[in-house]
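Fold this: AAA family ATPase
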Amino acid sequence: MKTLYLIGGTMGVGKTAVCQQLKKDLPQSVFLDGDWCWDSDPFQVIEETKLMVMDNICHLLNNFLACSAYKNVIFCWVMHQQTIIDTIINSLHTENCTVKCVSLIANEQSLRERLEQDVAAGIRSMDVIEKSISRMPLYQKINTTKIDTNGKTIQMVADEIKHTKGRNK
C-alpha cells in the first residue's frame, strides 16, 4: 500500500524543509512542491493559471501514484482552503493508498521571524509576511491534522507527520 502525504501550511511555516526530510526518511519516496508547477515570471494568479496549476499537480501526483518505484508520495503547497484539498484528492487515483492530510502551523512571532530571515536572505519579498500571517486562521477551518512547528526541529516535525493517521478512499 502506498501513502500519499498532503502537507499544507502558510508561506514560511517549513513545508518544503519538512518534506525534503520526509523524502530522506521514507523508503521509495518522491516529493513534489506545488509551487514548482507554476513557477513563472511574472507570477500571475488568474483563473487560467489556477486551473493550470491544479491540472499540473494532479497529473504529476497521479503519475507518481501509478509508478511502482514509489511507495511514499509527498506533496506540499499552501492549501489554505478545504476545496483545494478536496479537488486534489478527488482528482487522484488513490485506490490502495493511504492519504495523510496535514497542516503545519506556527504562532505569529515564529512565522514572522522565519519570513524576515528569508527576506534578509533575498529568498522572499517583504509583502509575503503580512500575506502569510493573514492566512494563518484559515488552517483551523480545514479537515487536516494540525502540527505545531513552534520550537521544533525539522526532524521532529517530520517524525510527527510519519505517525499521523491516514485515511483510505
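The longest strand covers residues 97-105. Residues 2-168 form a domain with the Rossmann fold fold (CATH 3.40.50.300).
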